[in-house]
Amino acid sequence: MTYSVAVSGASGYAGGELLRLLADHPDIEIRTVTAHSNAGQPLVAHQPHLRSLAHLTLQETTPEILSGHDIVFLALPHGQSGQYTDALTDVSLVVDCGADHRLTGREDWDAFYGGAFHEPWAYGVPELVTAAGKQRENLVGATRIAAPGCNASTVSLSLAPGVAAGVIDPSDLVSVLAVGPSGAGKSLKTHLLGSEILGSANPYAVGGTHRHIPEIRQALRAAGASGDVRLSFTPVIVPMARGILATSTARIADGATDAQVRDAWEAAYGDETFVQLLPEGQVPRTADVIGANTALMGLAIDRAAGRVVVVTAVDNLTKGTAGAAIQSMNIALGLPEGRALSVNGVAP
């Protein structure tokens, strides 16, 4: 069976990455691409690397144009998806790459986003450890999927195995992330100009204000955190177009041995294709995952500090967004989970 697909927000970075991956999916026909201010223009005017899709023209983003497809992907700014998802009742599968359907708590939405609150959908991080197993089980047969925030899924995947196994203290978590500016979208922003970021590292959303924090807390509670999930989260923009390198540390739980700590992560990801724990003593680079649907993870135990250190590298546009969305789509449709997704990055 071939599924007809519409991608909204197709002129942006996330939309472009969705289209790049979907273009090689044997079960998908990309029928419609939409945008807002760029409607009426050729897709390749905004995504010149997508040569196989040069025949497509960006249409207006309306419920009427998006309806009638088997699958709709929404790659819109936060707070804009809900107005369309409410109207797409005839679409069998909708995947939202924005934040509108990620959070289960209205209070968290109000505190970090504001505006209308929309019902939570199945969370699109298949490998995420939950108290009942893996998030993958919740995606089987799903008709509505919320793709993750790229920083949020990176940190959640980094820490959830330790929380689930009870070998780290979820009330004492710290994550510092080096992130590429593509995670902020394609619209022009002065602080993201090349002259502003080249040769500089620029922290932002410091002091517990980043919108992905409640998403991480929610994921770690789902992994079994019974008390407060306290996370100090600091992202730093660095001069690389795409990628996230997240260094997350947690206090080792009383009585947990080094072997038990490492066993928690090996048990969680030993059989996973797209989340891979590196051998002891190795840590990943963002260069190793560019263009891949792969999260590479290194784990170290700092007994002097009493902490476990997890360093995780992902491509924020692939595994962090579009790859996770397509992987989740494959699961929901009963297709091979890795179809159209690669573990191989692009180097140099």
Automatic annotation (TrEMBL):
UniProt cross-references to InterPro entries, sorted A to Z: AGPR, AGPR_dimerisation_dom, AGPR_type-1, NAD(P)-bd_dom_sf, Semialdehyde_DH_NAD-bd
Pfam families from the UniProt entry:
Semialdhyde_dh, Semialdhyde_dhC_1
Answer yes or no on keyword Oxidoreductase.
yes
Query: Which keywords belong to this entry?
Result: Amino-acid biosynthesis, Arginine biosynthesis, Cytoplasm, NADP, Oxidoreductase
**Boundaries of every Semialdehyde dehydrogenase NAD-binding domain copy:** 4-136
Could you tell me which SUPFAM superfamilies the record lists for this protein? Glyceraldehyde-3-phosphate dehydrogenase-like, C-terminal domain, NAD(P)-binding Rossmann-fold domains
**Per its UniProt record, what CDD domains does this chain match?**
AGPR_1_actinobacAGPR_like, AGPR_1_C
Tell me where it resides: Cytoplasm
Catalysed reactions, semicolon-separated: N-acetyl-L-glutamate 5-semialdehyde + phosphate + NADP(+) = N-acetyl-L-glutamyl 5-phosphate + NADPH + H(+)
Look at the named UniProt entry and state the broad enzyme category this protein falls under: oxidoreductase
List the active-site residues: 150
Q: What is its EC number?
A: 1.2.1.38
Q: Which domain of life is it from?
A: Bacteria
Reported function: Catalyzes the NADPH-dependent reduction of N-acetyl-5-glutamyl phosphate to yield N-acetyl-L-glutamate 5-semialdehyde.
HAMAP family the UniProt entry points to: ArgC_type1
Annotated family: Belongs to the NAGSA dehydrogenase family. Type 1 subfamily.
Q: What is this protein called?
A: N-acetyl-gamma-glutamyl-phosphate reductase
Q: Name the species this protein comes from.
A: Microbacterium marinilacus
